[in-house]
Specification:
Low-confidence stretches: 1-28, 800-880
Number of strands: 55
CATH class of the domain at 733-826: Alpha Beta
Strand content: 15-25%
CATH topology of the domain at 733-826: Leucine-rich repeat, LRR (right-handed beta-alpha superhelix)
Bound molecules: 2-acetamido-2-deoxy-beta-D-glucopyranose
Structural class: alpha/beta
Number of helices: 11
Length: 880
C-alpha cells in the first residue's frame, strides 16, 4: 500500500514535470512566424474539418502549438505540416510557407478533385504524401519540378492517372515512390525512367494497370533500389533480365501478374534478396539452382504458377529461409533431407498441390521447427511421416491426399493437441479413435480408415469432419456425452459411417452447429423435436438413413437453414406448409421418402430456392402454377455457395479451413455428386410421384432452370408451348406421363439442351426439324405411337411432311430462328464463360479449383465435356 502510494506521487510529479516542460519549452523559444501563421489560417479556411482535427489552429494561439505543425525554433518558420481526415480545398496560401519541406494529408477526402498544380512550385518540399486522399484526374506534371523531393506517395487514389512519366525525370532526389492503385495503362517507358533515378530505393507500383515492363530501348540499372513492388499489374511477358542487375534489391514482389517463361538463373545475382514473391503468375520451367546463392532469403513464394521440373538441392543452402511456398505448381521429382539441410529457420513449408514425392528417412530429424506444414496432394506415404514428432510448435498440418496408408502412431493424437488446423483427409490412415480427445480447432479426417466410436471433443473444436470412415456405435453416445456438452462445434460431418441408433434429444448442447451432416449412416427413429434448438443451423443432412415419422414442426425454428437434405429415408406425412417460412432455403431435397399429399403452394414463397427435389415420393395433386414466383429460378442470381469458410478461420489456413457441402442429384438421368459445382445448378425434380393435371404453362417463366424432371407421373395435356423461353435448360425429362399433342417447335431453340426424354407419352405429329432435336436418339421419343420423323424410324405422311414449322407451334421464338445458329454460339460462349470465366478469373475460386481438382467428379465432366461434345456434334449437324 505504502510503496504504491509513493509510486503514484512520483508518477504525478513526473507527469507534471514533463507536461510543463513541454509548455515552457514552447514558451521560451522563438514564436512562429506571423506570415506563416496567416498563411496557415487561410489554408484552414479552405478546408472542411469534419473531425475537428484543426481545432487547435486558432488566431489566439501561437502556431507552434497547433496540431500537425512543426516549425524551426530558430527562424520561426513552419517546416512540416501533417493534417489528416480533412477535405475541401487546398488553398494556394500554402505557397507562402517557403520553408515547408514536409507535407502530409493523411487519409483525407478531397472528394475526387485534382491535385493542385501549385504544389509543384513548393520547391523546398522533400516529403509529399497525398496517399489515400481521394484525389482524381491527371497527376499534374508540375510535381516534376520538385527536384528536392525524396518521398512521394500518391497511392490509393483510385482515379488518379498519369498520361506519361516523362515529367518525372527531374525528380532527381527521389528515394521513395509509391504510386499503387493509380492508373497508368497507357504508359510504356516508365520503367526506364524510374531506373535513371540514382537514389531511388523504394518503388511501389502495385495495381496500376501497367502492361509492360520491357523496353526495346534497354535500361539503365537501378543502382540503389532495395524494395520493388510491381504486383497486381498486367505484365504478360517474361521477367526482364534487367531487374537482376539491381545489386541492392532486398524485396521483389511481382505477384499477381501474368508473367510467363522461366525464372532466370540470373536471379542468383540478387545477393541481398530477402523477400521474393512471384505468386499467381504463369511461370514455367524449373526453380533455378542459382537460388542457393540468395543467402539472405527469408520469404520465397512461388506458389500458383506452372513451374515444372525438379527442386534444386541448392534450396537446402538457404540458411535464413523462414517461409517457403511452392504450392500449386507442376513440380516433379523427389524432395529429401538434402533439400532442407541448412534450413534451420524454416517455419512455413507449403508444398501442397505439386507432384512432389516427399521422401525422407523415418528417423530424419529436421533442422527446423515448423509452424505451418501444408503438403496436401504430395506423395508422402505409404508410411506415416514420423519426423513430424520432432516438430513441437506446429499450428497447421495439411496432409490431405498424400497417399499415407498406415496406422496413426500412438504419439500422434497427443502430439496434435496444440495444433489449430489439421487436415488428414483422403488418405488410408488407420486407427481406433474411440479413446482419443480432439483439441484442434479444425479437424478434417474425411475419407480414411478410422474406426471405433466417435472421438471426444475438447471445448476448442469448431469443425470436425470425419465423414467416409468406419466409425460405429450409437450417435447418441457421442452427442449426449458429458464431456461434449460444452462443445462449440459449428461444422460436424459424420456422413458415410456406420453410426446407429436414433438422433438423441440432447441436441440442445449443440447450438453452435451451423452445418450438420449425418447422412449415409444407419440412423433410425424420428427426427427429434429438439432439432429445433439448432437455431444457427444453415445446412442439415440426414439423407440415406432409416429415419421415419414426419418432419417435426420444431424445424421451422431453424430459420437460417439454407439446405435441407433428408432424402432416402422412410419419412412420411405431408410436406409441411410452414416450409414456406424458411425464407433462406436454397436447396430442398426430400427425394425417395414416403411423403404424401399435395405440394404445398407455400413452397413458391421460397424465393431463393434453386434445387427442389421431391422425386420418388407419393405426392399427388397438381404441380403448383405459382412456381414462377421462385425468383432464384427466374432471375439470374448467384447459385448455392457450397464452399464454407468461417470468417475467423479464413485467410492463412486455407488448406484446412474450407468445408464443402455436397449433394447427390440426378440432373440427366444419372446420379452425380455435386460440391462447389452446386453454384451452377438450378433444378426441379418432381419425378416418380402421382402428380396429375397438366404442366402449368407458367413454368416457362423459370428461365434460369437447368434441369427439369417431371417424369413418371400422371401428367396430361400438352407440353407448354413456350418451353423454348427456358433458355438455360440442359435437360428435360417428361417421360412416362400421358402428355399429348405435338412437340412445341420452340423446344428447338434450347441451345444448351443435351438431355431430352419425352418417351412413353401420347405425343403426336412430327418431331420439329432442323435443330439439335434430331441429335438425340430415338430412345428420347419412343413410346409415343403418334410421333413421326427423324430420329424415329417412322416417316411422317406426305401431309404432315409439308406442314411448315410455324404452323406447328406458333410462338415468338420463331422470329429468332434466323439468328439461331449465331445465337447458339453466343449462348454457348456465355454459358462457357459463366463457368470457366469464373473459374479462371476469380482468384480464390481458382485456388479452390486447383486444390479440389481431383474431387470434381462431375462438373468438369458434365458441363464441359458434354457441352463441348455436344457443340461439336451440333456443328457437325449444322454443316449437313
Ligand atoms: C530547437 O529544436 C532542437 C531540435 O529540434 C532542439 O534540440 C532545441 O533544444 C530546440 N531549442 C529550443 C530553444 O527549444
Ligand atoms: C463532392 O463532389 C460531388 C460531385 O463530384 C458534389 O456533388 C458534392 O457536393 C461534393 N461534396 C463535397 C462535400 O464537396
Ligand atoms: C471520393 O470522391 C467521390 C466524388 O468524386 C465521392 O463520391 C466519394 O464518396 C469520395 N470518397 C470516397 C471514400 O471515395
Ligand atoms: C514547372 O513545370 C511546368 C510543367 O512541367 C513548367 O511549364 C514550368 O515552367 C515549371 N516551373 C518551374 C518554376 O520550374
Ligand atoms: C547494367 O548492368 C549490367 C551488368 O551489371 C551492365 O552490363 C550494363 O552495361 C549496365 N547497363 C547500364 C545502362 O548501365
Ligand atoms: C515444362 O513445361 C514446358 C512448357 O510447357 C515444357 O516445354 C518442358 O518440357 C517442361 N519441362 C519438364 C521438365 O517437364
Ligand atoms: C498425452 O499427454 C498427456 C499429458 O499431456 C500424458 O499424460 C499422456 O500420458 C499422453 N498420452 C500418450 C499416449 O502419450
Ligand atoms: C437469411 O440469411 C441472411 C444472411 O444471408 C440473414 O441475415 C437472415 O437473418 C436470414 N433470414 C432468416 C429468416 O434467418
Ligand atoms: C422414309 O423416307 C425416306 C426419304 O424421305 C426414305 O428414304 C425411307 O426409305 C423412308 N423410310 C420408311 C421406313 O418409309
Ligand atoms: C407455311 O405457313 C405459311 C403461313 O401459315 C403459309 O403461308 C405457307 O404457304 C406455308 N408453307 C408451306 C410450304 O406449306
Amino acid at each position: 500500500m505504502g510503496t504504491s502510494f509513493v509510486a503514484h506521487v512520483f508518477f504525478l510529479l513526473w507527469f507534471f514535470a514533463t507536461t510543463f516542460s513541454f509548455f515552457f519549452k514552447a514558451e521560451s523559444s522563438v514564436t512562429c512566424n506571423e506570415k506563416d501563421k496567416q498563411a496557415l489560417l487561410n489554408f484552414k479556411q479552405g478546408l472542411s474539418d469534419p473531425y475537428g482535427v484543426l481545432s487547435s489552429w486558432s488566431d489566439q494561439e501561437d502556431c507552434s502549438r497547433w496540431d500537425g505543425v512543426v516549425y524551426d525554433n530558430k527562424t520561426g518558420r513552419v517546416t512540416e505540416l501533417s493534417v489528416y481526415w480533412v477535405g475541401g480545398e487546398i488553398s494556394g496560401s500554402l505557397l507562402q510557407l517557403e520553408h515547408l519541406n514536409y507535407l502530409d494529408f493523411l487519409e483525407s477526402d478531397f472528394n475526387g478533385t485534382a491535385i493542385p498544380t501549385f504544389l509543384g512550385s513548393m520547391a523546398s518540399l522533400t516529403y509529399l504524401d497525398l496517399g489515400n486522399s481521394n484525389f482524381s484526374g491527371r497527376i499534374p506534371h508540375q510535381l516534376g519540378n520538385l527536384s528536392n523531393l525524396r518521398y512521394l506517395d500518391l497511392s490509393g487514389n483510385d482515379y488518379l492517372y498519369a498520361d506519361n512519366f516523362h515529367w518525372m525525370s527531374n525528380l532527381s532526389s527521389i528515394q521513395y515512390l509509391d504510386l499503387s492503385r493509380t492508373k497508368h495503362q497507357s504508359e510504356v517507358g516508365w520503367f526506364q525512367i524510374m531506373s535513371t533515378f540514382p537514389s531511388l530505393s523504394t518503388l511501389i507500383v502495385s495495381d496500376c494497370e501497367l502492361v509492360n515492363l520491357n523496353s526495346s530501348l534497354g535500361f539503365g540499372n537501378f543502382t540503389s533500389l532495395q524494395y520493388l513492388d510491381l504486383s497486381d499489374n498486367l505484365f504478360s511477358h517474361e521477367i526482364p533480365l534487367s531487374i537482376f542487375n539491381s545489386p541492392k534489391l532486398e524485396s521483389l514482389d511481382l505477384n499477381s501478374n501474368k508473367l510467363i517463361g522461366k525464372i532466370p538463373e540470373s536471379l542468383g545475382q540478387l545477393k541481398q534478396l530477402t523477400y521474393l514473391y512471384l505468386t499467381h503468375n504463369s511461370l514455367s520451367g524449373p526453380i533455378p539452382s542459382s537460388i542457393g546463392n540468395l543467402s539472405y532469403l527469408k520469404d520465397l513464394d512461388l506458389s500458383d504458377n506452372q513451374l515444372n521440373g525438379t527442386i534444386p538441392k541448392t534450396l537446402g543452402l538457404l540458411s535464413n529461409l523462414e517461409n517457403l511456398s511452392i504450392r500449386n505448381n507442376f513440380l516433379t521429382g523427389t524432395v529429401d533431407e538434402e533439400h532442407f539441410s541448412k534450413l534451420s529457420k524454416l517455419e512455413t513449408l507449403g508444398i501442397s498441390h505439386t507432384h512432389l514425392f516427399f521422401n525422407v528417412k523415418s528417423n530424419w530429424v529436421p533442422p527446423f521447427q515448423l509452424k505451418s506444414i501444408t503438403m496436401s496432394s504430395c506423395k508422402i506415404g505409404p508410411n506415416f511421416p514420423t519426423w513430424l514428432q520432432t516438430q513441437r510448435y506446429v499450428l497447421e498440418l495439411g496432409l490431405s491426399k498424400s497417399e499415407i496408408a498406415d496406422k496413426a502412431p500412438s504419439w500422434f493424437w497427443n502430439w496434435t493437441s496444440n495444433i489449430m488446423f489439421i487436415n488428414l483427409s483422403d488418405n488410408q490412415i488407420e486407427g481406433d479413435v474411440s479413446e482419443i480427445v480432439l483439441y484442434s480447432r479444425v479437424i478434417n479426417l474425411r475419407s480414411n480408415h478410422f474406426k471405433g466410436q466417435m472421438p471426444q471433443l475438447s471445448t476448442n473444436v469448431a469443425w470436425l469432419n470425419i465423414a467416409n470412415n468406419s466409425i460405429s456405435g450409437p450417435i447418441s453416445s457421442f452427442m449426449c456425452q458429458k464431456m461434449n456438452r460444452k462443445n462449440i462445434l459449428m461444422v460436424l460431418d459424420v456422413s458415410n459411417n456406420l453410426l446407429t441408433g436414433a438422433i438423441p434429444h440432447c441436441l440442445k448442447y449443440w447450438q453452435s452447429l451451423t452445418h450438420l451432416n449425418l447422412g449415409s449412416n444407419d440412423i433410425s427413429g424420428r427426427i427429434p423435436y429438439s432439432m429445433g434448438s439448432l437455431v444457427a443451423l444453415q445446412s442439415l443432412h440426414v439423407q440415406h438413413n432409416r429415419i421415419s415419422g414426419d418432419i417435426p414442426s420444431s424445424l421451422k425454428k431453424c430459420s437460417n437453414l439454407r439446405l435441407i437434405d433428408i432424402g432416402e429415408n422412410p419419412l412420411s406425412g405431408a410436406i409441411p406448409p410452414w416450409i414456406g417460412e424458411m425464407t433462406n432455403l436454397t436447396i430442398l431435397r426430400l427425394r425417395s421418402n414416403g411423403f404424401k399429399g399435395q405440394i404445398p403452394l407455400q413452397i413458391c414463397q421460397l424465393s431463393s430456392l434453386i434445387v427442389l427435389d421431391l422425386a420418388n415420393n407419393s405426392l399427388s395433386g397438381h404441380i403448383p402454377n405459382c412456381l414462377k414466383n421462385i425468383d432464384a429460378m427466374t432471375i439470374s442470381s448467384p447459385g448455392f455457395e457450397a464452399q464454407y469458410t468461417s470468417d475467423h478461420l479464413s485467410g492463412m489456413f486455407l488448406d484446412s479451413s474450407i468445408y464443402f457441402e455436397n449433394l447427390m442429384l440426378v440432373p440427366k438421368g444419372v446420379e452425380l455428386e455435386y460440391e462447389e459445382n452446386l453454384r451452377f445448378v438450378k433444378m426441379i425434380d418432381l419425378s416418380s410421384n402421382n402428380l396429375s393435371g397438366s404442366i402449368p404453362s407458367e413454368i416457362s417463366v423459370l428461365s434460369e432452370l437447368c434441369f427439369l424432371n417431371l417424369s413418371q407421373n400422371q401428367l396430361i395435356g400438352k407440353i407448354p408451348e413456350k418451353i423454348g423461353i427456358m433458355k438455360k435448360l440442359e435437360s428435360i425429362d417428361l417421360s412416362q406421363n400421358h402428355l399429348s399433342g405435338e412437340i412445341p417447335s420452340s423446344l428447338s431453340s434450347l441451345t444448351f439442351l443435351s438431355h431430352l426424354n419425352l418417351s412413353y407419352n401420347n405425343l403426336s405429329g412430327k418431331i420439329p426439324l432442323g435443330t439439335q432435336l434430331q441429335t438425340f436418339d430415338a430412345l428420347s421419343y419412343i413410346g409415343n405411337t403418334q410421333l413421326c420423323g427423324y430420329p424415329l424410324p417412322r416417316n411422317c405422311t406426305i401431309g404432315e411432311e409439308s406442314q411448315n414449322r410455324t404452323s406447328i407451334g406458333k410462338i415468338e421464338e420463331d422470329s429468332d430462328n434466323s439468328n439461331f445458329y449465331i445465337g447458339m454460339g453466343v449462348g454457348f460462349a456465355v454459358g462457357f464463360w459463366a463457368v470457366c470465366g469464373v473459374l479462371f478469373f476469380n482468384r480464390t475460386w481458382r485456388h479452390a479449383y486447383f486444390r479440389f481438382f481431383d474431387d470434381m467428379k462431375d462438373w468438369v465432366y458434365v458441363t464441359t465435356v458434354l457441352n463441348v461434345n455436344w457443340l461439336l456434334e451440333k456443328l457437325r449437324s449444322c454443316h449437313l
